[in-house]
Design goal:
Blueprint: H1 3-15, H2 18-25, H3 29-43, E1 48-50, E2 55-57, H4 59-83, E3 91-97, H5 103-116, E4 120-126, H6 129-137, E5 143-147, E6 155-159, E7 164-171, H7 184-187, E8 191-195, H8 200-206, H9 208-212, E9 220-225, H10 228-236, E10 241-245, E11 257-261, E12 267-268, E13 270-275, H11 282-295
Parallel strand pairs: 3-4, 3-5, 8-9, 8-10
Antiparallel strand pairs: 1-2, 5-13, 6-13, 7-10, 7-11, 7-12
Helix pairs in contact: 1-2, 1-4, 2-3, 5-11
Length: 297
């Protein structure tokens, strides 16, 4: 299986037409069709359903599209790393992160590194823990900033210096907004917009199961989210009360929502992680050195 042919396949998948893909690749249509037929023979799977005016992907074709995108991304990342070896220190650093105020520590290190080495570029991928760790494991990310709980057995890591505080985003005109803190009984009879950490799979490790106790199963979960920006929009539109981390949503006078912390206090730690035995480029090696200088004693 050649990288070139995977790029051909992606061109067809993205344009939905062998003719259009052939034109963009400066190939003849018969040549491109033959390359894809050879690929189907090699994989022993039908990848395309050829219609009169367009082609669609089979389930196997959809699977190959995802894998091909990952392979091409990894090839380009590897080429960039090797191209940077002989340069003045430069290169690309890929960081995945959940939504957290602790990103400010990473941003400070990024700024310092860019001031010293302006040819270094950072690429930030926002996502939940599953998304970030999947890309870490495949080598598509160099580092991940993850909210606990997280299985750290496959990673080296540094624990961040601050913990994030859990609370509730609610409309400013809500009766609960008159309270300084939100307690368990305040949440039993209201619609809840829940984060990943509140799911049954993670609630014990994240502390939610202990915090709610036997009342956990009586929560009225109206919606779930993995990006707090979307949760805040749902709150603003009256869908429910979002349980989330502090300092992630704009709660200034110009907005319709506010934040109140949970009581008893509930916090989550964070870790910056990278794969064990990872081979670092010069740029990522410098970034890791800065991380250790700033975040460890």
């Amino acid at each position: 299986m050649e990288i070139r042919v995977l790029k051909y396949f992606l061109a067809i998948a993205n344009q939905g037409s062998i003719t259009a893909a052939a034109n963009s690749l400066h190939l003849t249509q018969p040549t491109l069709s033959r390359q894809i037929q050879d690929l189907e023979k090699e994989l022993k799977q039908k990848l395309l359903v050829r219609g009169k005016y367009k082609v669609t992907l089979t389930p196997e074709g959809l699977m190959l599209k995802k894998r091909a995108e990952e392979i091409i991304e990894m090839v380009e990342k590897t080429k960039a790393e090797f191209n940077s070896i002989n340069d003045i220190i430069s290169g690309d650093i890929y960081i995945g992160c959940g939504e957290t105020d602790s990103m400010k520590y990473i941003a400070e290190i990024m700024k310092e590194l860019r001031d010293e080495y302006p040819n270094i570029k950072f690429h930030i991928h926002s996502g939940n823990a599953e998304d970030v760790t999947e890309k870490l494991d495949k080598g598509l990310l160099d580092f991940g900033l993850l909210i606990q709980p997280i299985d750290l057995s496959k990673y080296d890591y540094i624990t961040m210096p601050q913990k994030d505080t859990w609370g509730v985003i609610m409309p400013k005109n809500s009766p609960l907004a008159k309270k300084d803190v939100i307690k368990i009984d305040d949440l039993i009879d209201v619609p809840i917009i829940a984060s990943r950490q509140m799911s049954k799979k993670y609630s014990a490790e994240s502390g939610f199961l202990d915090w709610f106790g036997e009342k956990f199963d009586y929560l009225n979960i109206a919606a779930t989210y993995n990006l707090v920006y979307n949760a805040a929009i749902m709150v603003d539109n009256g869908i429910g009360y979002a349980i989330t981390l502090d300092k992630l949503v704009n709660i200034t006078n110009n907005t319709n929502v506010c934040f109140r912390p949970l009581s008893p206090k509930l916090e989550s730690g964070l870790d910056i992680v990278w794969k064990k035995n990872q081979v670092f480029s010069p740029a990522t090696k410098l970034f890791l050195q800065k991380l250790k200088e700033k975040l460890t004693v």
